[in-house]
Amino acid sequence: MRILFIASSRIGDAVISSGAMERIRHDHPGARLTVACGAASAGVFARLPGLERLIIFEKQRQDRHWLSLWSRLVRDRWEVVVDFRGSALAYTLRAGRRIVVRGGRRPGRRYRQIGASCGFDPAPLPVVWTAPQDRAIAAGLLPEGAPVLGLGPTANWDGKIWPAGRFVALARALDYRRIAVFGGPGEAEAARAAPVLAALPGAIDLVGRVSVVEAAACLARCALFVGNDSGLMHLAAAAGTPTLGLFGRSRASEYAPAGRCAGFVAAPGLEGEAPMEGLSVESVIAAARELAARVGTA
């Protein structure tokens, strides 16, 4: 039995879909799984149990990437095809069942939209898949000891980023003995995290230093994570870490972190248009302490 998942190229969206993928996997024990996604999100699926093929495809002119992907899939017969990108590709493949998840057609949380499209009620929460070697690396980077506060001061565009100085003020107010700063690879992520790391010289620098699965394992060892709306925020919540997402020019009503202990605080104003500068340090401190108190980490 073979199952195909056509997944998002964005880490956050890939993580949001993971709960539905896990449920489908459990409903078809022993199935051989293929995941098609972009290079950025490939790490989300690297440890997916039952993974047989991981196909990387990137956007090309005139949508040629879809033709390229189709040519790699058309010879196979699939028990289930799940297209989280809402394309027409699923209808061109031989499949016993097709699930095409489209965006923007249902109100509410994105993970619930996906769950409903897949026929799940209630919708399963996102998950992370890690291996013993990932958890061993995380244990070396964040060994047992005082609780760790994880910070995610970066994002894929500036409109999602809370000012660096406010992350510093938050960290000092929460007064954790150990702080880990997370961020993705590349110069832009490093530059966005640099002011926070410079102001917190004792912080553990994990910006661009770990893979997606290693980051997930590290996040699972944090007592609390506070970060901008980003793939790391979704990864932290899926890992089961108490997670507080910060929102301004993105929609918390759809993309707030989904996990066993997760919440958000949004800048005042019209959703999706409020500047992050309007989000006060005091409101984030209060929300972080309330979230931490729910699990006894404060």
From TrEMBL:
GO terms for cellular component: cytosol. It holds the Pfam family Glyco_transf_9. The keyword Zinc-finger does not apply. Gene3D superfamilies: Glycogen Phosphorylase B (3.40.50.2000). GO terms for molecular function: ADP-heptose-lipopolysaccharide heptosyltransferase activity. Keywords: Glycosyltransferase, Transferase. The keyword Signal does not apply. InterPro entries: Glyco_trans_9, LPS_LOS_Heptosyltrfase. One of its GO terms (biological process) is lipopolysaccharide core region biosynthetic process. This is Glycosyl transferase, family 9. It comes from Acidiphilium cryptum (strain JF-5).
